[in-house]
């Protein structure tokens, strides 16, 4: 029998510098255009379209170089796999906000907060509270999605800036997350660099403490100088209205305590948040029956069935309140899993783009020249910082911004006799901490979604997140806490090492 000739495989070409630059420039142009045309509303669809189009253009470049569509599709599937946990966390937080509003948990936090916190000291107090909670549970996402929601709502009630409050929440959440031994990102940074966990944390204190002090001073100054719209008469009216709408009692804070306990015991974030959301929904049936009647507005339906429908709707579509007071209604009419769909759309596009430019060698093509030019320690540190921040912008995921610079630079650090804890600190300062400053990064999109403040609006006030990479650069310039090891005994790491791989989002 005559044999059929096999279809020859297309020759795969190494990407050129032009190939590597096309996706990045496309992303910059399309994202910039969406922001210029639509402003803060860009995150409601135009920004997502810009990133999806950038991903498609990247796919064309990859196909042009000889790769198959199946390879491109597999890369996309791998990208989606890395964010599956983040998607479940987002859905869980949406459900939690809805049921916490309905159960009186958030109204109770705001009610007591109005009575206890002086407006002049609100921002530093919000910052310190979030530092403490995030340090104890090791999760910036959980801290922002729970306490952060209540603090931003409280700021609105007091006539204070929600943008500054969001900056204080995010700054505090990342201070605690960055030095908590329970933090997933902290543990990963230590593991990837082969550094004992507490040695890595001690190294991070050199940049975290000064950056945290700068943030605290900034929030004190902002609190004193802020001309708030605080009016005790208006606030008294709101407190009275809260008491009329909800049964205010410390018992309403039980879902918050329950969530913190689960987090301390390292229950997976999405499971812990969803359990707290369900507890709040069940509590609402007993603690706030009048709220459920008002929310469902079906008097002919039995009370148990009303409660079931209320929990279901609050988790799916959020809670709605019509109190007649604009600020109260804006605070409480939020949440639901469906409120996270725009954010998930944004994260899917950004992470898929980032995985593609990494998998097919486009990122390495751009980063390698930085490594070759990094002759001194300061330039080397600056190259790591620039690469990590650049990956947060182009790849859209904090863990990619942590993992790839570690893989790219750890061999160079070892050759120069620089201890691995130097690199673990720098990639944490530049990769993890700056992630919520990028609107299309998974962290930036998450923070904007749960706090109800756009990334670009809170960005100038995320003082810690801006200061940390600058402080780590300053340490390099001033030769402070630069740990060294004998070059002859420097640990060698192969380029392909990936302890644990790219983890799921927290």
UniProtKB/TrEMBL annotation:
<keyword id="KW-0812">Transmembrane</keyword>
<dbReference type="InterPro" id="IPR018461">
    <property type="entry name" value="Na/H_Antiport_NhaC-like_C"/>
</dbReference>
<feature type="transmembrane region" description="Helical">
    <location>
        <begin position="205"/>
        <end position="225"/>
    </location>
</feature>
<feature type="transmembrane region" description="Helical">
    <location>
        <begin position="245"/>
        <end position="264"/>
    </location>
</feature>
<feature type="transmembrane region" description="Helical">
    <location>
        <begin position="340"/>
        <end position="357"/>
    </location>
</feature>
<comment type="similarity">
    <text>Belongs to the NhaC Na(+)/H(+) (TC 2.A.35) antiporter family.</text>
</comment>
<dbReference type="GO" id="GO:0005886">
    <property type="term" value="C:plasma membrane"/>
</dbReference>
<feature type="transmembrane region" description="Helical">
    <location>
        <begin position="46"/>
        <end position="67"/>
    </location>
</feature>
<dbReference type="InterPro" id="IPR052180">
    <property type="entry name" value="NhaC_Na-H+_Antiporter"/>
</dbReference>
<feature type="transmembrane region" description="Helical">
    <location>
        <begin position="20"/>
        <end position="40"/>
    </location>
</feature>
<feature type="transmembrane region" description="Helical">
    <location>
        <begin position="271"/>
        <end position="289"/>
    </location>
</feature>
<dbReference type="Pfam" id="PF03553">
    <property type="entry name" value="Na_H_antiporter"/>
</dbReference>
<feature type="transmembrane region" description="Helical">
    <location>
        <begin position="457"/>
        <end position="477"/>
    </location>
</feature>
<keyword id="KW-0813">Transport</keyword>
<dbReference type="GO" id="GO:0015297">
    <property type="term" value="F:antiporter activity"/>
</dbReference>
<keyword id="KW-1133">Transmembrane helix</keyword>
<feature type="transmembrane region" description="Helical">
    <location>
        <begin position="79"/>
        <end position="101"/>
    </location>
</feature>
<keyword id="KW-0050">Antiport</keyword>
<keyword id="KW-1003">Cell membrane</keyword>
<feature type="transmembrane region" description="Helical">
    <location>
        <begin position="377"/>
        <end position="405"/>
    </location>
</feature>
<feature type="domain" description="Na+/H+ antiporter NhaC-like C-terminal">
    <location>
        <begin position="172"/>
        <end position="479"/>
    </location>
</feature>
<keyword id="KW-0472">Membrane</keyword>
<feature type="transmembrane region" description="Helical">
    <location>
        <begin position="121"/>
        <end position="154"/>
    </location>
</feature>
<protein>
    <submittedName>
        <fullName>Sodium:proton antiporter</fullName>
    </submittedName>
</protein>
